[in-house]
Amino acid sequence: MHPHEIPPGVQEVILPSGERALAYSTGPATPPPLPVPAPTVAQPIPAWAKTTALLAPTVGGGIAVAAVGLSAAAPGLVAVSHVLWSAVAAIAAGGTAAAVVIGRVRARITAAQRPHITQHITATGWFGRAHGTINHR
Asked: Which of 10, 57, 106, 124 is the most interior residue, by most CB within 10 Å?
């Protein structure tokens, strides 16, 4: 069909499959004209965008190099971790043993040097004067 043979209210449409078909229009017979966009003027790129664009590959490369370095050093880091945990366990065990030994030595020394003191205090009456004796052994 030629375009001049199409009756009013019918228009040619292209389906999503690419096929052309005729369809009745429910809106105005002719589509409204699209507004003409104003010509755009090229704007300069901001400095922060340039800096970010230059830093992005650098930061990504640094992270990649760090990951490769950590993967290469992983066995050594595991060994160092085990050594540090062993050192912590040895220090804890040594500290506990030292505390026990110091406690036993201190108990023997203080038990031998500690004096035995007894007191006898007597008072007569509600507001009576107190009298007492102290005995050292």
From this structure: 10
Are the beta carbons of 134 and 118 closer than 8 angstroms?
A: yes
For residue 40, what are its two tokens? 């755009």
The residues near 3 (Cβ < 8 Å, ≥ 6 apart) are 12
Q: In this structure, are residues 134 and 115 in contact, taking their beta carbons and an 8 Å threshold?
A: no
CA 26/CA 28 separation, integer angstroms: 7
Residue with tokens 């050292």: 136
Assigned token pair, 51: 């800096």
pLDDT in tens, 29-54: 566 677 777 788 888 889 999 998 99
pLDDT one-digit tens code per residue, 94-130: 999 999 999 988 887 776 666 677 888 888 888 888 8
pTM exceeds 0.70 for this model: no
The single-letter DSSP state of residue 20 is E
| Best CA proximity match to 122, nearest among 133, 112, 111, 131 | 131
